[in-house]
């Protein structure tokens, strides 16, 4: 499978996750291929690059007409941290990332809650209270900057932990990002309860596959996640979230896009 086999519609519809720190290696190829992108603003990018750097690259992408989303930093961050200093640092980092995201004029900015079962499982009510308070400044800034935030499931065992946050704010700036790979590997759950809970404010979906043992980030179709069922549900419910393919190897990009294209064509979505 090569680039020539991927339609322009698929390349516009599916965003390829690409960390900003890897732009030097892959951005030229991605632009030549006409791909849509999810810009990964991880901790390394936020430390290594200046606002001028981000602004210059964003202008280049805008000139090229690239469809964009942004993934905010998440490593070590915890909006509901029991340690107040950790929570404050998490909020500060996310606010910094939102200011950078503004340069890219993204359709969506993906964020994580920072929930971890090893720390928070036995005190979920307190964690939820803290996560709601921790997100207040972030949601307010998103509203002021005209950004849409999508809260992504990672280690949360069920949708209720995230729906309680989104419903608490009831803000047009806050919705969901459903990650089927995380639900399958970490929550040991099928996609149904998550999409049914998220469908009212589903901003984005992350696509990558695994066999249920770990978050392997295989191309779709190479694990056990029933993506055809997922997209059939979206089509039936007339949902059209942003789709981001999180490939972890360059050689997985074209097979993953081709698999998604086959599904879209088969279900006429």
What does this structure look like?
The chain has 269 residues and is an alpha/beta fold. It has one domain: TIM Barrel, CATH 3.20.20.150. It has twelve helices and eight strands. An eight-stranded parallel barrel has the order 1-2-3-4-5-6-7-8, surrounded by five helices. Helix 7 packs across helix 8. It is globular. The model has no long low-confidence stretch (mean pLDDT 97).
Helix/strand layout:
Blueprint (H helix, E strand, L loop, with lengths): L7 H6 E6 L3 H11 L2 E5 L2 H6 L2 H13 L4 E4 L12 H21 L4 E4 L4 H4 L3 H22 L3 E4 L7 H10 L4 E6 H6 L6 H7 L3 E6 L19 H10 L5 E4 L7 H15 L2
Parallel strand pairs: 1-2, 1-8, 2-3, 3-4, 4-5, 5-6, 6-7, 7-8
Keywords:
8-stranded parallel beta barrel, TIM Barrel, alpha/beta, 49% helix, single chain, globular, 269 residues
What is shown here, in short?
49% of the residues lie in helices and 14% in strands. The chain is built from twelve helices and eight strands.
N-to-C order of helices and strands:
HEHEHHEHEHHEHEHHEHEH
Radius of gyration: 18 Å
The multimeric state of the shown protein is: single chain
User: Within the CATH hierarchy, at the fold level, what is the topology?
Assistant: TIM Barrel
Any idea what the CATH superfamily is called? Divalent-metal-dependent TIM barrel enzymes
Strand order of the largest sheet: 1-2-3-4-5-6-7-8
How many domains, in number, for the residues? 1
* Uncertain runs: none
Average pLDDT reading? 97
Output the number of helix runs.
12
